Description:
By secondary structure, the protein is an all-alpha fold. The chain is 72% helix and 0% strand. The chain contains five helices and no strands. It has helices at 18-41, 51-73, 79-93, 96-108, 112-143. The radius of gyration is 20 Å and the shape is globular. The termini are far apart.
Amino acid sequence: xxxLPEERPAAVSxxxxxxxxxxVAVGGLVGTELRYGAxxxxxxxxxxxxxxxxxxxxxxxxxxxxxxxxxMARPRTAFWLRAGLGPGLLGSFTTFSALTFAVxxxxxxxxxxxxxxxxxxxxxxxxxxxxxxWKSGKALAGLRGGxx
Length: 148
């Protein structure tokens, strides 16, 4: 009598594989180091708008929107790559916690006009950068034969 082959347990759907976890970890490490390096090269003075953090968050909004739009046009982009670049690299490079920390410090130090301006700039420039990234992503997807 011939033995039946053993069935392998089915992969649990919805749980990413090890490649995605590794990509997020590596991307997170790279993004964190880039953010730290930018802070060293462009230090932020107390009592002023934290321009470095603002620039990082605005640039990250643009890049993430452009990549997301490209990935929507190309849904077969490997999940581990999307996870590594999106939540990994860009998630650690641009952080809401840095914005919150800067605002908290400014409130504690009594720089109310500065933190209000910083929040307004973050919102307006971040949304503008995301919109520009979306448009750029659509244009790139169109140039490369993706759908618009």
